[in-house]
């Protein structure tokens, strides 16, 4: 968790072969899984968010090479310390025309 914006952007580009300037967020987790950093390009600069849990740990994938796409709901679950693979999630309902 020592890397800052430039180091994380380079990691996204070189190790994961992804574009750090894409409309996406990139989430990195510390070794103890109690801290995460979120990198996001806003069009005029990078935003770096940092969260440290005071108790517990993030439900982070075991593989260090695991890159995956998350839904907004899965991202919220992750930030709350929950698993991104909730078995009893309520499905999203779309509005119907009357």
UniProtKB/TrEMBL annotation:
It comes from the Bacteria. InterPro entries: Transposase_IS66_Orf2. Pfam families: TnpB_IS66. NCBIfam families: IS66_TnpB. This is IS66 family insertion sequence element accessory protein TnpB. It comes from Kineothrix sedimenti. The gene is tnpB.
